[in-house]
Each structure stands twice: as structure tokens, then as C-alpha cells.
What we know:
The protein has five helices and twelve strands. The protein has 183 residues and is α+β, with helices and mostly antiparallel strands. Strands 5-4-3-2-6 form a five-stranded antiparallel sheet, with no helix packed on it. A four-stranded antiparallel sheet has the order 10-11-9-12, sandwiched between helices. A three-stranded antiparallel sheet has the order 1-8-7. Strand 4 and strand 5 form a beta hairpin.
Amino acid sequence: MNDEYVDDEDSAIPRSQIFVLLDGTFAVRWSENRVQELETGQYRLYERRDFGASITDYELNQLKQAGLVEAFDKDHVRLSPLPQRQHIAQISPWERTRSRSYYLNTTLPGSFLHDISEILEKLELSDQFQARVRDDFVVLWGSKGISFQKFDDVEKARHLLVSRAPEAFMNTVVAFIETTRRD
């Protein structure tokens, strides 16, 4: 991996180098201990414990709609040129409205949906969480399938699940959908 990103129009980045950090930031990994935030272009130190989840097709489509990704397939991602990504990040708040909707990704395959639903019933948490399948992973939304609006709320929910059923939820991570709307 390169230590610095070379913006070559003909180069596609292996999809495994783009992922979601534990804090919800979309990043590309350029070296063993260095990532670049997709939205801001800022570099930051990276440690293995910072990994949140692999990026999903849905999230890549959101990044494509936001102008940060040009194209992707199952193996590679082509980022928008850095100047274009920086321009998008610099659009004033009066010109765009950003919205994040948080949810929990259990990282379990979609085939575990019924099992997770049963666990939620046994824990008497089925009124607080709605299990669904997204990109072939079991994900959890808040009550009645509504997203969590604040990171702190979804993180508290994750801690609750891990404390009540660690064997089922120990690999659960916070995920989000972000949309940008120009006004």
C-alpha cells in the first residue's frame, strides 16, 4: 500500500482498503497505521482496534450520491478525485443539509435474523429494537424500525445488548446512513 494517495484516474482501490472506523468515519487505509477520511481528506493514525466494519454496497451508494465515490464493484472502489471530494466537504452549511441515521450492525449473516429476533424476545428488548437484514447482515434499528438520531444513543444501545447477551452481540458495531441534500 502507498503511504500517500496518488490520484491516478486509472487506479482502483481494493475494496478491502475502504471501511468504516469504529467512530463511524468512512476511511481508506493507505498504510499499516495510516488512514484517510473519505469526507474530509484528513489523514489520521490507525490501529487495528479502530476498525468498525467492512463497507457495504448501500454505504458505497450513499458515498457515490454524495460525490465521494465515482464507482465500485465487488472488488474495487474508484474514489472521486481529491479536489472534487475536498470541494464537497467545503460546501457551506447553507448550501447543504447533512443527516445521519444510526443503527447497529451485528456483523452476523442475514441467516441469523430469526435467531437474533428470538434473543431480543427472550431479553424483553423486542419493543426497543427491530431486527432487519441489510446487505446480508443482521442489523438493528430502534423502536418500530426507526433509526437512532444520536451517536451516544446508539452506542448506549450497543452496550446494553453486549452486556445482556455478549455471545450474540459482542461484534456489533455502530453504523449509519448519511445523506447530503443541497438546498
